[in-house]
């Protein structure tokens, strides 16, 4: 009946209202969250409802025990382990509907036209950071037509041609950013207590991320370069291996499931994609060079696009350890103000290929 949830078929349950750890955007009355039904979290509770026509309930209060009855002995079992925080992520734009559960229709994968083998790598001398050479060429950017998960800003899907470039094999780590901070006198952004030297650096603004990359004679990746790199030579799929993604492939959903990470994970903890790049999906959102514009794909150049000339927010891509699977899709776009700092936002660098 109208107004009721689907009886079967869903893998995630709706959550509403935000939690104690939610940013203001998640407290919007219209915001919709989602979690697996077996999730236990210290930021998720319940309230009850019953049909107005239901039979009146009678609440019975148990009588107090006799005064001579001994007080109950506290249980000796260990207290339950605190659950993880409820997942949070950059909010979708106005046109971006909440992604449906994985049972929605999905496109069939198209084999890559070329999948480079044994791509060249090199380690920079300024800081021990490995970059992978991507030969460039043409790829299909955007959401596959007919996929029910598509948002308006992911369309139209079209061929984009890119020049060759080098890109970080992993997200920039805490240790790598600290080396930059010490060498340049830049303030080191505060890192969470669960982080470490081999974790992705977070709480960095767009300007700080770009400054690090420029220190290496590089820059942040354009949005097109990022999607080309993330696809790893695959075309026509939501994720590198098909229409769904598992916790063996990426760190997401804010749950310490089989991946063992309820927060960010050390870089390189999950399998690399077809280009030998790690954590392109999940772990932390990654800053891109471009300003965000919802209809940019309708007017973007076909060769080496770099985004609109101005804007209010910068593109972030890839999802994070707090994200639901829909935000890890290869074509999914989100954005943040350049000055924002978040525990789930990091970056990697591109080194343009010199003539």
TrEMBL record:
Biased composition (Low complexity): 74-98
All copies of domain Sulfatase-modifying factor enzyme-like, residue ranges: 131-350
Stretches for region Disordered: 1-116, 299-322
Cross-referenced Pfam families: FGE-sulfatase
Highest taxon in the source lineage: Bacteria
Bias (Pro residues) ranges: 62-73, 99-114
InterPro entries (alphabetical): CTDL_fold (IPR016187), Sulfatase_Mod_Factor_Kinase (IPR051043), SUMF_dom (IPR005532), SUMF_sf (IPR042095)
Protein name stated in the entry: Sulfatase-modifying factor enzyme-like domain-containing protein
Record organism: Thermoanaerobaculum aquaticum
The organism's taxonomic lineage, starting at the top: Bacteria, Pseudomonadati, Acidobacteriota, Thermoanaerobaculia, Thermoanaerobaculales
């Amino acid at each position: 009946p109208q107004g009721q949830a689907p009886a079967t078929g869903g893998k995630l349950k709706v959550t509403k209202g935000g939690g104690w750890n939610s940013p203001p955007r998640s407290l919007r009355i219209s915001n919709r969250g989602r979690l697996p039904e077996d999730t236990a979290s210290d930021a998720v509770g319940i309230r009850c409802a019953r049909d107005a026509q239901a039979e009146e309930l009678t609440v019975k209060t148990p009588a107090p025990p006799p005064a001579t009855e001994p007080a109950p002995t506290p249980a000796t079992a260990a207290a339950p382990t605190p659950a993880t925080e409820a997942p949070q992520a950059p909010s979708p734009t106005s046109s971006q509907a909440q992604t449906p559960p994985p049972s929605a229709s999905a496109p069939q994968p198209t084999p890559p036209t070329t999948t480079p083998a044994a791509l060249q790598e090199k380690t920079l001398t300024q800081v021990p950071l490995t970059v992978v050479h991507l030969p460039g060429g043409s790829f299909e950017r955007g959401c596959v037509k007919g996929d029910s998960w598509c948002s308006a800003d992911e369309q139209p899907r079209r061929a984009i041609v890119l020049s060759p470039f080098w890109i970080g094999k992993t997200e920039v780590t805490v240790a790598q950013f600290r080396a930059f901070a010490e060498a340049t006198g830049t303030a080191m952004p505060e890192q969470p207590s669960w982080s470490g030297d081999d974790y992705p650096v977070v709480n960095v603004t767009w300007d700080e991320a770009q400054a690090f990359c420029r220190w290496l004679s590089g820059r942040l990746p354009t949005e097109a370069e990022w999607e080309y790199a993330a696809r790893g030579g695959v075309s026509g799929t939501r994720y590198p291996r098909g229409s769904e993604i598992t916790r063996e492939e990426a760190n997401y959903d804010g749950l310490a499931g089989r991946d063992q990470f309820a927060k960010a994970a050390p870089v390189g903890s999950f399998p690399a994609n077809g280009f030998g790049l790690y954590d392109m999906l999940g772990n932390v959102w990654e800053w891109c060079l471009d300003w965000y514009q919802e209809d940019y794909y309708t007017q973007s150049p076909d060769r080496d696009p770099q985004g609109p000339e101005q804007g209010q927010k910068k593109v972030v891509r890839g999802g994070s350890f707090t994200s639901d699977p829909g935000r890890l899709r290869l074509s999914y776009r989100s954005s943040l103000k350049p000055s924002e700092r978040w525990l789930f936002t990091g970056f990697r660098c591109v080194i343009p290929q010199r003539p």
